[in-house]
């Protein structure tokens, strides 16, 4: 009887103590986690908005070298023969201002734009070349392992020649510099109609996509679309040209642009950093 009375009076109090202890522990964990996520979210927003005040002044020069239109299979898996264009170009671009402390990498491409066969449809666009330029922070990431290797690695004074080469390399390693001369395209241009010969009003344009560590993606800004301290690209478009007639065997049908003696056929000397 005494045990029954003790059980009736003690069990609710013990259960209440345990419940209060568990409730307070869960509340504390939730408060800490909520505070952590709030701080992380505010820091992320601050980082994403901080790049607005950093000026961007990209510039580029894009020129057509030559273009050929041939009929065949542009890819080994193509089911049938069709007309495709082979375009060579010169590209010199300075996109270093697009890199800041929140830039992870930059995706750059060269796109050909030409009118569609149907006048009511928008112009056709095809990418002929692209590349990915990574930032210095992604090229040389800072991790606990790299920090430990740096601290434990033996230090030796570099020679004078090595110091000069390293300084020269530091000057030339700025990400965002592109220099392509008589570059071959990565991709051939094909059309859904299967015909490209004698197409008029064709232009080449450079475009990019900035991929940040935190924040939204930003795309190509043309010169007329400048905003605040972000200037649109200066240049970046070739002169209008026409596709040549279909290349016939034994007859050289190509459009060649540029002055002086052209370089070796299909030679490309890219400097992409």
Uncertain segments are 162-172, 258-270
Oligomer: single chain
Overall geometric form:
elongated
Rounded to an integer, what's the Rg over CA atoms? 30 Å
Structural class: alpha+beta
Mean pLDDT: 77
Order of helices and strands: HEEEEHHHEEEEEEE
Total of helices: 4
- How far do the termini sit from each other? 87 Å
State which percent range the strand residues make up: 25-35%
Number of strands: 11
Helix content: 25-40%
For the largest beta-sheet, the strand count, sense and barrel status come to: 7 strands, mixed
Short characterization:
With 273 residues, the protein is of the alpha+beta class. Helices cover 27% and strands 29% of the residues.
Plain-language structure description:
The protein has 273 residues and is α+β, with helices and mostly antiparallel strands. The chain is built from four helices and eleven strands; from the N terminus they run H-E-E-E-E-H-H-H-E-E-E-E-E-E-E. Strands 1, 2, 5, 6, 9, 10 and 11 form a seven-stranded mixed sheet that branches. Strands 4-3-7-8 form a four-stranded antiparallel sheet. A hairpin with a 5-residue loop joins strand 7 and strand 8 (218-219). The longest helix is centred in the first third of the chain and has 49 residues, at 2-50. The chain is elongated and about 95 Å long. It starts with a helix and ends with a strand. Mean pLDDT is 77; it is low at 162-172 and 258-270.
